[in-house]
Design goal:
Blueprint (H helix, E strand, L loop, with lengths): L1 E2 L13 E2 L5 E2 L3 H9 L2 H11 L3 E6 L5 E6 L4 E13 L2 E12 L11 E11 L4 E8 L7 E4 L4
Parallel strand pairs: 1-2
Antiparallel strand pairs: 2-3, 4-5, 5-10, 6-7, 7-8, 8-9
Length: 150
C-alpha cells in the first residue's frame, strides 16, 4: 500500500493510498483537479493567520473549557485527510490537518511535535463553513488559558 503523497499533483486517480492516520483513501480525476486548484496548505495557512494562531472558546475531551489557546508560530500543517462530499444538491470539501510545531524555547524534540488537528470545511465555492479543533492542551508548546471561576 502506497503512502498518501503530500501533493495533489502526485496523486493518481483511482489508486488506493494509506493516509498518515492509517485510513485508506482514493480520489477520482475530478477530485484531484479540485485539490490542485485549491491547494490545502494555502487554505490552512490563511485560516491560522486569520485567527492569529489563537483558538477562543475551546472544550477539550474531558469537558474542560479554555477561554483562549495560543498556538506556537511557526506551525506546520500536514494534510492528513481530504474529502469531497455530496448531500442532495450541496457539495462540500473537508480537509483535516495534523498541526506540528518545531522545537521552540529550548525544548529538545528531535522531530516536529504534533500539537493537534484542525478540520476545515468549505462549500463547493470554497467559502468557509466550519472548523473543528482537536488540541493536546497538555502540550507545553500551547499556551492554554482555562476558564476562570467567578
Amino acid at each position: 500500500m502506497e503512502a498518501l503523497p503530500n501533493s495533489w499533483a502526485d496523486i493518481q486517480p483511482d489508486t488506493i493510498y494509506q493516509s498518515g492516520n492509517g485510513l485508506l483513501v482514493s480520489f477520482s480525476h475530478e477530485q484531484i483537479q479540485l485539490g490542485i486548484k485549491y491547494e490545502p496548505s494555502a487554505l490552512v495557512t490563511e485560516h491560522l493567520e486569520l485567527c492569529h494562531y489563537q483558538v477562543c472558546g475551546y472544550w477539550d475531551e474531558e469537558d474542560n473549557f479554555y477561554e483562549e489557546i495560543t498556538l506556537p508560530s511557526p506551525l506546520s500543517a500536514e494534510l492528513a485527510i481530504g474529502a469531497i462530499g455530496v448531500t442532495g444538491k450541496h457539495r462540500w470539501i473537508k480537509l483535516t490537518f495534523d498541526l506540528k510545531a518545531d522545537n521552540q524555547d529550548g525544548l529538545n524534540y528531535q522531530e516536529p511535535q504534533k500539537i493537534g488537528e484542525l478540520t476545515l470545511t468549505y462549500n463547493e465555492n470554497l467559502e468557509f463553513l466550519d472548523e473543528n479543533w482537536r488540541l493536546d492542551v497538555s502540550c507545553p508548546l500551547l499556551i492554554a488559558k482555562p476558564q476562570t471561576q467567578d
